[in-house]
Q: What sequence folds into this?
C-alpha cells in the first residue's frame, strides 16, 4: 500500500512481542504455593515445606480449562514473596523438594510446562524479587542476593524442559516489598540481560522501563486516557499509581499496561472467598481489553491442586458472554464516509473485515468526522474502534453519536482509542453513527469500526441500587478503622445474609495485605447494618485505596471505595 511507504510511525512503537500480547488480550495468572496450604496471602518465609502437599494436582486441568475459555497465555507464580520455589532449584533448599509431595521428587513447573506444550499455551513466570526466606535478602549481602536471583532466572529460562516447548513469553518481576523489608537495590541490568539471552522474545513486567508495566491498581481496570507509553525517568518502585494507570501522552518508550486482578478477592485460594460475579468480570473486561490493554486474570488452584469448580463455571460463563458479544458485527461491510481520506486508505477499510487495512485522512485538519451507515435501523449498544498501534498511538479525544429522529444524539465519548476501544452505551435503535476525533497527536490511523448488541449479561445497568453503601467513597487515616453503613432497600420482608469482602485497589501493592470477610445477617424487616473495617497501616506520606464489595446470595453486588491516607510520619 503506497500510504505505508509515505508514512513514518509516530512516537514509540510496539515490539512484535508487545503487539502479540495486544492481540492475545487475555492472560491468566496462577497463584499456587505454600500460601495455599497456610490459607494466607503473604508468607513470612518461615513456612514449613512439609505443608505443601496437593492431593490431586492436575496441571492439564488448569491449562485445558484456560485454553477452552479463551486465555492465550498463563503466568505461573514460581516463587512468591515467601521464597518457596515450585521447582527443585539447586540454589535453595526452600523448595518442593523438601515437601512430601511426590516424595520430594515433584516439579510443578515441569508439569505445567508439559501441559502448556500439550495444549500450546504460552507461558510466563512470576519470580518475586522480594524474598522473605533468603538469608541473603539484606543490604549487606545485596550482591549475593542479586546473583541468587539471577541464577534462578537462568535455571528456569534456559532449561528446555520448562516453558511452552522451551519458550517463555513473560517474566513478572513484582515490585512489591513488605513494610520493613530490606531495601536492596536490584541488579536489573544483569537480570534483564539474562532474560534477553535465554528468551529473546520474553516481555518483562517490572518497575523499570521494560515492555510491560503495572496498571496502577489490582482491580483490573485501566484508565481513560490510556497511553501505552511512559517516560523512563518517571518510573521507580514508587511511581504514582495514576501515572501507571494512564501512561504518559509524552512517553518515549512503548509500555504495555497489564491489567491484573484476581477472580476472587485474594490472589491465593481461600475457601472463605467466592469468585466474582459474571457482571463484575465483564465490567473488568470492558475496562481492560475494552480500553486496549491485556487483562491478566488470576485463577488460584485449591489445596488439592485443581481449579475450583465455581471458578471454572464462571470462566465458562465469561467466555460465552465475550464470544456472544462479537458474534454479529452489524457494521461488517457497511458504508463509511470520512470528511477526509487518503486515496489509498479509504474509510471503507474500517468495516471490510481485514485487520490490517486502515483509514487515514489526507489532511491533518482537526477534527476528523466519519459516518457509518448500517443500511437499516439496528438495535445495538456496543461500538468497537481500533487504532493501528504498529504505527504508534495517536487519538487523544473523541465522541460518538447516533442519528435519532430529531438529529444526532450522544452515544459515548472517550479520550484514547488505542489497540481496541469498546464503548458500551444504552441500547438504541439507529441506522447511522457519527465518530468525531477531536484531538489527535498525529494524523489518526484507524483499522476497525464495529457495532454489536451485547449479550444480556453485559448490558449497561445501574449498579444494584437496591443495595447501597451510605457513601461511594470513605476516607480514613492509615491504621484506623472506618465505620461503613450498608442499606438494603428491597426484599425487606426476608432475612438475608450479605457477604462483605475487601478487594485490593492500590492499597495493597507493596504494603501488608490480608483480606477481610464479613457476613452481615439482615433479619426480616432490617434495612441497615454497620461494620467497622480496619485499614492498612503503612509508612510514608501517601494515599492508598481498597474496595469493599457487598454480594447478595443471588450474585448482585455493590461496591464502595476506601481511601487510606497517611501524612503522619515522614
Ligand atoms: C502483588 C503481590 O504482593 C500479590 O501477592 C500478588 O502476587 C500480586 C499479583 O502482586 O504485588
A:
Amino acid at each position: 500500500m503506497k500510504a505505508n511507504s509515505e508514512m513514518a510511525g509516530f512516537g514509540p512503537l510496539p515490539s512484535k512481542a508487545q503487539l502479540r500480547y495486544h492481540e492475545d488480550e487475555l492472560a491468566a495468572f496462577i497463584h499456587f504455593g505454600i500460601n495455599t496450604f497456610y490459607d494466607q496471602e503473604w508468607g513470612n518465609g518461615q513456612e514449613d515445606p512439609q505443608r505443601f502437599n496437593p492431593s490431586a494436582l492436575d496441571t492439564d486441568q488448569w491449562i485445558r480449562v484456560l485454553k477452552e475459555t479463551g486465555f492465550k497465555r498463563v503466568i505461573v507464580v514460581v516463587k512468591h514473596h515467601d521464597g518457596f520455589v515450585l521447582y527443585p532449584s539447586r540454589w535453595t533448599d526452600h523448595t518442593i523438594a523438601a515437601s512430601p509431595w511426590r516424595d520430594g521428587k515433584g516439579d510443578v513447573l515441569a508439569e505445567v510446562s508439559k501441559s502448556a506444550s500439550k495444549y500450546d499455551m504460552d507461558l510466563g513466570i512470576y519470580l518475586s524479587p522480594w524474598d522473605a526466606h533468603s538469608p541473603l535478602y539484606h543490604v549487606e549481602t545485596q550482591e549475593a542476593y542479586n546473583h541468587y536471583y539471577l541464577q534462578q532466572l537462568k535455571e528456569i529460562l534456559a532449561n528446555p524442559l520448562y516453558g511452552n516447548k522451551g519458550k517463555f513469553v513473560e517474566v513478572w518481576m513484582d515490585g512489591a516489598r513488605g513494610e520493613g523489608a530490606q531495601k536492596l537495590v536490584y541488579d536489573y541490568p544483569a537480570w534483564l540481560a539474562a532474560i534477553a539471552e535465554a528468551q529473546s522474545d520474553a516481555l518483562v513486567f517490572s518497575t523499570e522501563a521494560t515492555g510491560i508495566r503495572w496498571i496502577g491498581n489490582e482491580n483490573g481496570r485501566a484508565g481513560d486516557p490510556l497511553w501505552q507509553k511512559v517516560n523512563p525517568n518517571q518510573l521507580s518502585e514508587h511511581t504514582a499509581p495514576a501515572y501507571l494507570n494512564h501512561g504518559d501522552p509524552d512517553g518515549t518508550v512503548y509500555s504495555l499496561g497489564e491489567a491484573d486482578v484476581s477472580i476472587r478477592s485474594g490472589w491465593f485460594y481461600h475457601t472463605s472467598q467466592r469468585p466474582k460475579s459474571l457482571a463484575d468480570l465483564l465490567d473488568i473486561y470492558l475496562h481492560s481489553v475494552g480500553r486496549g490493554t491485556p487483562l491478566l486474570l488470576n485463577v488460584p488452584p485449591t489445596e488439592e491442586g485443581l481449579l475450583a469448580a465455581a471458578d471454572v463455571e464462571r470462566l465458562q460463563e465469561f467466555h460465552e458472554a465475550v464470544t456472544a458479544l462479537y458474534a454479529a458485527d452489524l457494521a461488517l461491510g457497511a458504508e463509511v464516509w470520512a470528511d477526509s481520506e487518503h486515496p489509498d486508505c479509504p474509510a471503507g477499510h474500517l468495516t471490510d473485515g481485514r485487520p490490517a487495512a486502515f483509514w487515514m485522512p489526507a489532511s491533518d485538519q482537526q477534527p476528523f468526522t466519519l459516518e457509518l451507515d448500517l443500511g437499516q435501523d439496528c438495535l445495538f449498544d456496543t461500538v468497537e474502534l481500533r487504532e493501528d498501534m504498529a504505527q504508534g498511538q495517536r487519538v487523544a479525544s473523541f465522541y460518538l453519536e447516533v442519528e435519532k429522529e430529531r438529529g444526532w444524539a450522544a452515544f459515548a465519548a472517550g479520550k484514547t482509542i488505542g489497540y481496541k476501544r469498546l464503548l458500551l452505551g444504552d441500547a438504541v435503535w439507529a441506522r447511522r453513527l457519527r465518530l468525531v476525533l477531536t484531538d489527535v497527536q498525529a494524523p489518526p490511523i484507524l483499522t476497525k469500526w464495529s457495532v454489536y448488541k451485547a449479550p444480556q449479561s453485559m448490558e449497561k445497568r445501574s449498579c444494584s441500587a437496591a443495595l447501597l453503601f451510605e457513601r461511594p467513597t470513605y476516607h480514613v487515616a492509615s491504621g484506623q478503622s472506618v465505620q461503613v453503613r450498608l442499606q438494603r432497600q428491597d426484599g425487606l420482608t426476608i432475612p438475608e445474609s450479605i457477604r462483605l469482602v475487601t478487594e485490593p485497589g492500590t492499597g495493597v501493592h507493596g504494603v501488608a495485605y490480608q483480606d477481610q470477610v464479613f457476613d452481615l445477617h439482615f433479619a426480616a424487616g432490617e434495612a441497615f447494618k454497620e461494620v467497622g473495617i480496619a485499614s492498612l497501616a503503612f509508612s510514608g506520606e501517601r494515599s492508598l485505596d481498597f474496595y469493599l464489595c457487598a454480594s447478595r446470595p443471588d450474585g448482585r453486588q455493590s461496591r464502595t471505595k476506601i481511601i487510606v491516607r497517611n501524612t503522619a510520619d515522614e
Notes: Residues 310 and 529 are 28 Å apart (CA to CA). Residues 309-326 form the longest helix (18 residues). The pocket of beta-L-fucopyranose is lined by residues 41, 174, 176, 260, 267, 509 (CB under 6 Å). Residues 467-565 form a domain with the Immunoglobulin-like fold (CATH 2.60.40.2030).
